[in-house]
Amino acid sequence: MSSDLAPRASGAAPAPADGDNRYKAVQAKLLKLGKAMDDATLELESLRRSMRANATRTEGVARDIANADLDVKFVELTNNVSLALGGAAIQVRRLHDTAQETVDLTYETKRTHSKLYGALDDIRSNRREKTPKPAFFNR
To answer: What single DSSP character describes residue 131?
Structure first.
């Protein structure tokens, strides 16, 4: 009963918060975040299934230990492992649901941002004259 979990090679965030708030940069960051969270939900679902399968196998091992008339403490310990794996699988499912909700909100935010600022970006990026920097008119 091993796990395929391994740390990722890169510890960096998929979309760094670097203060670049230009329209296209924000859209790219939201897209990267959405894709990374999509990947995370797939990995979490795989982890949940694996934990559930391990819990079921461990329950079978506990039954086999009991049928072999081994010491009761080994049956109890193995049952405890099975229960712990089942409980962990439930928590991973909750984490998966939260990650999926975050994915949905990320894509919704990307669409809303595009709806609100996409036309403005088209206008600003297609003209030859330079656009004043933000807060230029606030003097």
So the answer is: P
